[in-house]
Write a structure and sequence with these properties.
Layout: H1 19-22, H2 24-28, H3 37-47, E1 51-60, E2 70-80, E3 83-91, H4 92-96, E4 102-103, H5 106-112, E5 116-117, H6 128-141, E6 148-155, H7 158-166, E7 169-170, E8 177-178, H8 183-197, H9 207-221, H10 225-240, E9 244-248, H11 251-259, E10 273-281, E11 291-302, E12 305-316, E13 328-337, E14 341-346, E15 354-358, E16 361-370, E17 374-385, E18 392-395, E19 404-409, E20 420-422
Helix pairs in contact: 3-11, 7-10
């Protein structure tokens, strides 16, 4: 494979740093073929597409939504044989304004008072391929003119990881140095309140995001091959942790995405027990920065079934309210095996549970309310037919780092690790 000097690579906007992942084989060449064979295979598949346009969704993990976060910005990015040819960044609220949409899900109507679903709330499905197709439909419905070949979900939680590698940056329009520790809250404050003090119009308030992208791009261009290699490793780990997601209409590309498990699909658990927690912050604040989750699951025999009691402990660690955070308000879904029978859910804010069957799963949806500086337990009781051998598959929602998990399996005394399969680096 031909080596390409990292100095000559063009990294355009912050979100397109994801293309380090896609084109990693062309950044560092054959020296990493053995280590990144699958990633390079994906890069080659995208290169063979010729000129294609992807939508990159910038998902704000401080305001968690089903596939990672609120879509405050997105970009049209045209690639030519795997390289960035041109791009346009949009403020999603501005793009949506005055445009048509589709009928919004009832929780959005109830909790946000919004009857029409548009791109800013379009990532409602926790199954990323479903969300990707819906985002393309909404983009076209709202007047988008590009032929979209795929969707990339880029979560804001990646940004601190990048700054850990390339170092802090100074950005025009934002006071003070931005580093891995302060960048998310500093940018969020500027976009919500700082622009007012500076006399900047609401329409122009997101210009610092472009400035931030330019500064990060500048530092990456000046990075050594070793730094780029480290950065690529970090980004691959972020993709493995579901902070980068990809869907392509090209089946050859999508097959490679799925082989890397970067597709964000609700997985088929077969005969195993299954659990996924999906929060959608509909309180319109950035309280997810302070939210912690711990989960305990007890499994015991109950006749010819296995009965489970799952306790989800939410901890809103914010000591006080602020302009950026307050009480946590979420529409939450628990996704269970298709043959699960939910007997009870307690601790929820309102005594109303929405039951549905989607993705070959059983789903219970409900509102939760967690005041700041407090904890609350949500308890789900359900049963499944008793299998010959028990196993448990856990999927993590994109946008969170993970959670503490404990399994108490009472019928047998085997080690927990024999029963657990997760899609992130969980440790007992």
């Amino acid at each position: 494979m031909k080596k390409v000097s990292p100095k000559k690579r063009i990294f355009t906007i912050l979100g397109i740093i994801v293309l380090i992942l896609i084109s990693i084989g062309f950044i560092l060449g054959g020296i990493i073929w053995a280590q990144y064979r699958q990633e390079i295979s994906l890069a080659q598949a995208i290169q063979k597409q010729g000129d294609v346009t992807y939508l990159v969704l910038f998902q704000n993990t401080l305001e968690l939504r089903p596939t990672g976060g609120f879509v405050g910005n997105f970009a049209e990015v045209t690639l030519s044989k795997g390289k960035v040819k041109k791009y346009t960044i949009y403020n999603t609220n501005a793009f949506d304004y005055g445009k048509p949409g589709i009928n919004a899900p009832q929780p959005i109507k109830t909790m946000l008072g919004v009857n029409t679903l548009q791109m800013r709330d379009g990532n409602w499905s926790p199954d990323f391929p479903t969300t990707a197709k819906q985002m393309i439909d909404l983009y076209k419905l709202e007047g988008g003119t590009q032929d979209i070949a795929g969707i990339i979900g880029f979560n804001a939680s990646i940004l601190p990881e990048i700054l850990k590698i390339i170092g802090p940056v100074n950005v025009e329009g934002i006071d003070g140095e931005l580093n891995a520790d302060n960048v998310l809250l500093a940018v969020q404050y500027e976009l919500n309140f700082g622009f007012i003090d500076k006399g900047i119009s609401r329409a122009d308030r997101k210009e610092p995001i472009k400035n931030l992208a330019a500064e990060v791009e500048k530092k990456i261009r000046k990075s050594s091959p070793q730094t780029l290699y480290t950065l690529a490793n970090i980004l691959i780990e972020q993709a493995n942790q579901k902070q980068l997601l990809l869907w392509s209409s090209d089946q050859k590309v999508q097959d490679r995405v799925e082989s890397l498990n970067w597709d964000g699909m609700i997985e088929n658990n077969g005969d195993s027990d299954y659990f996924m927690l999906v929060d959608a912050n509909l309180g319109a604040l950035k309280t997810d920065y302070y939210m912690k989750r711990n989960i305990n699951k007890i499994v015991d025999s109950c006749g010819d079934k296995l009965c489970s009691k799952i306790t989800i402990q939410y901890n809103n660690t914010a000591k006080t309210a602020s302009p950026l955070n307050n009480d946590y308000k979420s529409y939450t879904r628990v996704i269970l095996p298709k043959n699960a029978f939910i007997t009870n859910i307690t601790g929820i804010d309102k005594d109303k549970i929405d039951y549905s069957s989607e993705y070959d799963k059983k789903i219970g949806g409900f509102q939760i309310y967690i005041p700041f500086n407090s904890t609350k337990n949500i308890v789900i009781d359900y049963s499944i037919p008793k299998p010959q051998q028990y196993s448990l598959q856990i999927q993590k929602q994109p946008g969170i780092a993970g959670f503490e998990f404990n399994l108490d399996y009472k019928p047998k005394s085997k080690q927990v690790s024999e029963y657990i399969h997760t899609d992130w680096n969980w440790k007992e």
